[in-house]
Write a structure and sequence with these properties.
Largest sheet: 7 strands, parallel
Radius of gyration: 19 Å
Shape: globular
Strand order of the largest sheet: 1-11-10-9-8-7-6
Structural class: alpha/beta
Mean pLDDT: 96
Strand content: 5-15%
Low-confidence stretches: none
Distance between the termini: 15 Å
CATH topology: TIM Barrel
Number of helices: 14
CATH class: Alpha Beta
């Protein structure tokens, strides 16, 4: 059975025979180097760990890059705290510095934009290599998520949300129209679905009223625009607690990805697999704490993951679970720590489902 067949079984079936596995981390040494170099790196990572799907980890500010932001990408002598926080770039300036500039924010032509063409070529290279055997999910940063890096940070974005909502709506509509083109270009290139990401998945930044104004309508429409072509969309529900679960029923996605065991949150406040399974019958993609779980010896990481997986699989109850990170990982970890996800999943499946 191929990875794609296993995931389709999870999407379509009430019960499957084995838990899945996937992992992802940034590779800044090649994520802007072009499709040949980047696809070769992704293929190496995927084949080494036999991941059940590929979550493409692009340069995390490729939307801003496509619009022409003046960005300094750090490549050497990067401070440890930057590696851990994944902030390995600096914006020399910001594209939007007034409500008037926001109200003029442009729609890009995806077919002629070199950044989008680079990202589309990567998807095509992966699709040509795997020929439908491994699901390929490009990362889409949803419209509101991208605004802080255009305006100068989250506090500045909030200032626009609160004081110039009409200008924000224009920018969101422009971003939506660009991203809808991008979704179709990725699908034409061979994508099987998308990893949709937004930082506003919880009550930590936007209120419910703000979420309903600035996120929900654009995000629902974007996910729905893939109906009939994408079969494995995943919603990354970002943060550590107070998630807006009830909104995501409206999205055209087949899986949820989130942090189920964040070390910073007491057990009673965590969105455990058991609690989320009560809310949804979608595929669950979760299992590890991004901040702490990937450090230590490989033996320590493996034992930690084994305990995490045992509980998550028991709480899921139906094996429609993919053991995976709940968010992007720090850049100072050993990639072999991520591979331990596959090691423990293989061991679990052999002992529980053999």
């Amino acid at each position: 059975m191929t990875a794609a067949e296993r995931i389709r079984q999870m999407v379509e079936s009430e019960r499957v025979d084995a838990v899945g596995a996937s992992g992802w981390y940034h590779t800044p040494e090649c994520d802007r180097a072009g499709a040949e170099a980047f696809s070769r790196r992704i293929i190496g990572i995927t084949d080494h760990s036999r991941w059940d799907f590929i979550k493409i980890m692009p340069n995390g500010i490729y939307m801003q890059e496509a619009h022409g932001s003046d960005i300094e990408y750090l490549s050497k002598d990067i401070p440890p705290e930057r590696l851990r926080s994944k902030m390995i770039f600096n914006f020399r300036s910001y594209l939007v510095n007034s409500p008037e500039e926001m109200a003029r924010f442009p729609v890009l032509d995806v077919k002629s934009n070199p950044v989008f063409q680079r990202e589309t070529a990567l998807v095509r290279a992966l699709a040509d290599h795997y020929k439908g055997t491994v699901p390929i999910l490009p990362t889409i940063f949803l419209p509101a998520h991208t605004i802080p890096e255009f305006v100068g940070g989250i506090p500045k974005a909030r200032w626009y949300f609160e004081n110039h909502p009409d200008a924000v709506d224009h920018m969101l509509q422009a971003l939506y129209e660009t991203e809808r083109q991008l979704l179709q270009a990725y699908l034409d290139a061979g994508a099987d679905g998308f990893f949709f990401a937004t930082r506003y998945s919880n009550a930590g930044i936007l209120s419910r009223d703000e979420f309903e104004r600035f996120c929900l309508p654009y995000e629902v429409r974007l996910t729905e625009s893939t109906k009939g072509r994408a079969w494995f969309n995943m919603m990354h529900i970002h943060g550590v607690k107070d998630f807006y679960w009830d909104y995501y029923d409206k999205y055209f996605v087949q899986a949820y990805n989130w942090e189920n065991v964040p070390a910073s949150v007491p057990e009673e406040e965590r969105a455990t697999v058991a609690r989320v399974r009560e809310l949804t019958d979608r595929v669950l993609v979760t299992g590890t704490d991004q901040v702490n779980d990937f450090y230590g010896s490989l033996e320590e990481v493996r034992e930690r993951f084994a305990q995490r997986l045992e509980r998550a699989a028991k709480e899921s109850g139906d094996n429609r679970l993919i053991f995976a990170p709940g968010c992007s990982l720090p850049l100072d970890i050993d990639p072999e720590s991520v591979h331990q996800i596959r090691v423990v999943v293989d061991a679990y499946n052999a002992s529980h489902n053999g």
